[in-house]
Amino acid sequence: MATLHTVNKSPFANQSLLSCLAHAKDGDTVLMIEDGVYGAGKGTGLAEAMTAMASRVALVALQPDLNARGLVADRILDGVKTVDYAGFVELAASHDRTQAWL
Amino acid sequence: MEDDVKKFLYVNRKAPYGTIYALESLEVVLIGAAFDQDVSLAFLDDGVFQLTKSQDTADIGVKNFSPTFRALGDYEVTKLYVEKESLEERGLTADDLQEIVWEDEDDDYEEKPSIRIVSRAEMADVMADQDVILSF
Question: Which residues from B are below 8 Å from A16, CB to CB?
């Protein structure tokens, strides 16, 4: 009964990622896409909150969106997995519902 | 005539690909460069992400316009102010930004850095020193 949450806005521009993390249940997946992938960056003001969440929800970022923004592997927070577009589809299929945090 | 030269500041506060603002700003800067004004660019908040290295948009189907910033020197746009606090809040340092230079024709075409890292207070002073401010 897990939910796939998608976040597509920069966490430095609005509160969507923080609100998503505050509402996600244990075992859910939070997928960062588009400008949402900035939430996966290392050394940010959010890194601590993100790392704390990684033990109870799966944190995932979309690889093509990371690439576009120059977020290369060594700039990404430990504990964040990446998927390609096919992986996005698999996540959507393997969860009971998808909730978009716009 | 020197009296006709105004100080223009383009303020960039958005990340590069999630919205069209960043690309549109760069287009307007390039068009405006034809008018021989005193142009500066400011990068603060998520705008600092526009200047990061290693951008590769091949898999998202949009143009990677980040290399265009390196051409601004040829249009006599040589002042790119980047706010230090905005970088720090996003886990970035000056080393994460592209190297952008301009050739100083009054100094034997020496290459000089275009990016100027400034504090939030200094950025406020830059803004207060302008005649025209265009926001993106």
Answer: none
